[in-house]
Amino acid sequence: MGIVTPTNKEVLGFKGLHLYHSGVSNCAMRVRMTLEEKKLAWTSHHLDITKKEHVTAEYFGINPNGVVPTLVHDGVVIIESDDIIDYIDQTFPESPLRPESSEDLDEMYWWMKSAGAIHVKAVKTYIYYHKMQGKMKQSDQQRQAYEKLQTNKELVEFHNASSKGFSVADAKEAEQTLDHFFEKANTRLTHQDWLVGEQFTLADITWVPLHFTLSGVGYNFAQFPAVQAWANKLHARESFAKAILQWCPIF
Prior knowledge:
By secondary structure, the protein is α+β, with helices and mostly antiparallel strands. It has 11 helices and 5 strands; from the N terminus they run E-E-H-E-H-E-E-H-H-H-H-H-H-H-H-H. It has a 5-stranded mixed β-sheet, covered by helices on one side. Helix 1 links the parallel strand 2 and strand 3. The model has no long low-confidence stretch (mean pLDDT about 95).
């Protein structure tokens, strides 16, 4: 469940819930939203990823991928947002955010894992192309410093690609992947209120930050009216305001 052993031993003494996060990270948004849905108290450790505050030996000692979010609960370190929100829901089961049937539970996990699977190749690539293109250049010294810390091959490749800039073909491939999943969601949401069954679940929490951040860079959700209606409904939740808008009012 995403539990890692940190080399930065400082966090082992943390009591309660501590979240390393960034306001603009859609992965962090879903963790904050889960915490707010559960009405849980948590301690914020905010990192400005636009200033590369997460690219330090200290933080890589907590999260070996050097990305946000990271949850520390009574000294236990959990990484990967889908694992974190699943951990929160199982550890604090009051007001459950999961369906009861095994079939619906499998469907919920499918949506969660799918979001993770397309995060770098589709979501980040599309966002960086449309918002960050030309702004992520780095010196050889900066690149070498990052590669000294980073052992995740996919993240190294993305980091280098974002520095050079993505091509039109890269952006188009990312868009096609996003279209595929949002078309599937639109079909589902045409006939029901939530992504899974008749209940608001972690699947909805996983995907609504993608709608928020992609909307901010011009992705065309007009082609998916049921997804847009679903998102509008989620925008009215108190957890959305506290977890997303208060931390990232304008993407």
